[in-house]
Amino acid sequence: MTYDVxxxxxxxxxxxxxxxxxxxxxxxxxxxxxxxxxGRGEAFDYLLGERTIPxxxxxxxxxxxxxxxxxxxxxxxxxxxTILAGEExxxxxxxxxxPIEVNIYYRTPERISGLVAHLEKCKKIVSIKPPNNWKRSxxxxxxxxxxxxxxxxFADGLIPGLSGPRAICDVNGILASDAILVPLEDGxxxxxxxxxxxxxxxxxxxxxxxxxxxxTITIVDDVTRFSNNLQEKLLIFQRLKREKWxxxxxxxxxxxxxxxxxxxxxx
Length: 267
Hints:
Layout: H1 12-26, H2 34-47, H3 54-69, E1 73-77, H4 79-96, E2 100-102, H5 109-126, H6 138-146, E3 150-151, E4 157-158, E5 168-169, E6 179-183, H7 187-195, E7 199-203, H8 210-214, E8 217-219, H9 223-235, H10 247-265
Parallel strand pairs: 1-2, 1-6, 2-3, 6-7, 7-8
Antiparallel strand pairs: 4-5
Helix pairs in contact: 3-9, 4-5, 4-6, 4-9
């Protein structure tokens, strides 16, 4: 399935990402509701001006510091995140020396194995060339990427407080972690992770979602932009400055930005 979007189209990349999701869904990698969730996020992104707003950049800095400071960080991805930001998050995992766990709401063995295989392909692509600001050899970058473990296929644990397939997780992944990055997470799963005592970092374009309100740090940004930004921050980690983070205040700033966008667009 290929689509030729003209370079002149003002939203070329956005359309291409929709087609990527459509293709992934046709292969059985995504649930039927995946496009609905993505469309809802796009609506909020319009209201943010389809850009990384300053408060989201600040939140990404604090997220990078939190993940780098953790003893056992982990990145948990669902279907949409895997398709939209798989390569970028593999790079982040390489810089954090942490695993990635595939953990999806509508869980089937076929979907899990397909997403794990997709991330393994991402590893091969990412390992070819180090990112900018990588100070060591290309061989060390390749080794760091190859060492990223993709979990999810043999999940044998349960998240306390949840029932059904959505509670399933890996004993050596989520259950062993102390800080977790969970882009596009479901609200009650986010709450359950917080109740486990984990430091929870969420990426969500909706500042009013339960996940946004429950998490330790919320980045109100598009998941692909965020993942690229996080990788850049991790590469200059020593220059980052830790700040006391008020998540509720940051969400209010994001809401204020949305309001400003609405006000300016109707003048």
